[in-house]
Amino acid sequence: MANTPAPAQIQAAKQLLASMGITPEDLAATTVTSTAPTFAEYVPVVAGAVSSGALRTYGSYWNRVVERWGPRRIDEPTPTEIKQFAEWVKANTVRRRNAHGGLGAVENFIGAMRCLYRHAGNDGLIPESFNPALKVPKPRRAESLRRAITDTRLDEINETVSTTGDDPALDALIVRLHTETACRRGGALGLQPRDLDQDDCLVYLREKGEKSRWQPVSPTLMNALLDHVSNRGTGDRDEQLLRYRSGEPITRRRYDYIWTRLGECLPWVATQQVSAHWLRHTTLTWVERNFGFAVAQAFAGHAKDRDAATTSIYTRASIHEIAASVAALTNEPHPLAPSDATT
């Protein structure tokens, strides 16, 4: 129960209002009008300000918000309403065999709302402390079903991808790039001719979170990438590297084509929903088992844990150690690795 103000407090408030020329009736008749934009007005602003990766993740959820809440001001929804919206997203998620009951969709929706309110606070459209989406907990992330692929089955993938399809040379190059570098799909799609260091057998990868790194590759892969640029490129060193025979750059759809085809030829690929990210798991698992956690962490391009022991600052793996693991993985000498790295 709220505390009843003392008569002296009421009298002091009346005197303060009187000194300002305001009557209690003026207060009762006054309404505060919000100047916050509507979702239909503000979502496009935020969508134009985030990275392409964030837009891919959040864009479809922002579209749903505009469809359902477009005319509403962004400061109107309560945490309960956002939670109700999240449950609606969960119930209307497209069901896939490798889905986790819509939990990933809920996580992305809440992330999208937090991102939108964070931008609105930065823009001064709402108080920076006003972020109702922060009061809606994200679901606990389900354990990934991806795992390392065995050598035998990896051989099956390489054999199938290089002997089937409308462009086996392209697809075999893509699979080898992911297997050797453990790069993400975005890193492969972002690769440009200027990112190839032929002398030191390095490729420059740009991946999510605007992180980038030089990654050692085998001479065989380096030569294959250079041949690809020579045969399919336009001569522009800043263009996308991976291209069709026509010269057009590939898109994410090429990956859908590759793994759908592999699933048709290798039933276990379709059954287990294997994708390019499984190649990353495969390579990093092998590196960790044979060269230790520090090398695997650097190989993956993972940032150091801020809460990790201070010792880890001094034990981070060098590019020479990563090159040694690549030499052992591919059984080819690498210019940055010790001469005995392949033995």
From TrEMBL:
GO molecular function: DNA binding
Listed InterPro entries: DNA_brk_join_enz (IPR011010), Integrase-like_cat_sf (IPR013762), Integrase_catalytic (IPR002104), Integrase_recombinase_N (IPR010998), Tyrosine_recombinase_XerCD (IPR050090)
The UniProt record lists the keyword DNA-binding: yes
Membrane-spanning residues: none
Pfam family, one: Phage_integrase
PROSITE patterns the UniProt entry points to: TYR_RECOMBINASE
Entry keywords, A to Z: DNA recombination, DNA-binding
Any single GO BP term: DNA recombination
Domain Tyr recombinase positions: 144-327
CDD domains linked to this entry: DNA_BRE_C
Superkingdom: Bacteria
UniProt cross-references to PANTHER family, sorted A to Z: INTEGRASE_RECOMBINASE PROTEIN MJ0367-RELATED, PHAGE INTEGRASE-RELATED
Family: Belongs to the 'phage' integrase family.
Protein name: Tyr recombinase domain-containing protein
UniProt source species: Kutzneria albida DSM 43870
